[in-house]
Amino acid sequence: MSFPDRAALETEQLAQLNRLLTALVPSNVFYAPKLSAVGLSEGAGSLAEFYEKLPLTTKQQIVDDQRANGPYGTNLTYPIERYTRFCQTSGTSGFTLRWLDTTESWEWMVGSWREVFRAAEVEAHDRIFYAFSFGPFLGFWTAFAAGERLGCLCLPGGGMSSAARLKTILENRVTTLCCTPTYAIRLGEVALEQGIDLASSAVRRIIVAGEPGAGIPATRARIEQLWPGARLWDHHGMTEVGPVSVECPVRPGVLHILESRYLAEVLDPETLQPVAPGQRGELVLTNLGRTGSPLLRYRTGDLVQPSPEAVCACGRCELALEGGILGRTDDMVVVRGVNLYPSAIEAVLRRFDDVGEYRVTLTTINALLEAIVDLEPLPTCTEPEALRLTVEAALRSTFHLRLPTQLVPCGTLPRSEMKAQRWVRT
Q1: 317 occurs within a structural domain
Q2: Does this model's pTM top 0.85?
Q3: Residue 271 lies in a domain
Q4: Is the C-alpha dihedral spanning 245, 250, 251, 252 positive or negative?
Q5: Nearest Cα to 425, choosing from 359, 376, 375?
Q6: pLDDT tens digits for range 316-361
Q7: Tally of structural domains, the chain
């Protein structure tokens, strides 16, 4: 497969950007005044001019707009009658964002998901199982529609237990599984409990999204161990932005931003200046084709590390993110002076095959934040106490911090097909 060079890509990006900007000015109440104020109402002469002139958009600005102008806010380019699709976020950060799309914007996002499937080598003869209860979250629906457009047999997994989903996957000779990393592990554990040999399944690829995991080598190895013969493919997106990235076919754990559809910047979260390749920063996105409800220079909160190579080994010049999504700017906690990210804890715990599930409880003791790790071993673990001691030692060695680790009975901690909620505060 051939890919455009950087100059050709940026020329096309600028053309798409200017079509978008001129579409917003007549009637998008949220963005039209901002564009006019900085002299971009008739478009930008260059991508550099756009980045220099237009201020960043934050999630709080979108939240404030929807609170003040409920239920959908003012970031709508067309009359409400033009909109045909409704989605919303999970509300885990305290406020549920509602998002509307026109038919054209929806098809643009479905096209992005088709790129995800193409990168994972999904073809018309494949059978895709979607292990989700289909709620109002964008990713389920766009992925399902993309599978249909490719001509695949698409099997919805809503309203099923894990055992029923496994049965459906096996009986229908499913070749492609879509789920979260956590739920891929859960299905593998249920298969072990029921004596099901997943090596005999037809699943050859597992496409995951919704949370970090596939970019963590230990988590990736765990999933591929539970699903012999299947390769894990990472992807990420957001309800308010759309499907954003595809995994590199030759460098597992590296995500490519679909820059034919997005403008991508990586900025220092504090200075808001571009970071150098190889340095960590916050991903900022502009979606170029979601005209009905776009976001321009949106601070996603996702921490990423751009690859230093201008052209990837796969031939893409699109932005490559080493390790995928590394965490979020609002996820970090400071425990006795040590910065802790959930993905870093996950990377340690998933090195141990006998760890079934875990939870980190944050509590304040004598004005200091403390973290306690609840560890649930698999039923097959023969020496739980030895596992606890080994895990606690590994955490101390990695973070130079004692994180008390305690065992909980098998089946105690909740499992979810959605984003796992493993960090709680008391």
Answers
A1: no
A2: no
A3: no
A4: positive
A5: 359
A6: 999 999 999 888 877 778 787 677 878 788 888 988 988 988 999 8
A7: 2
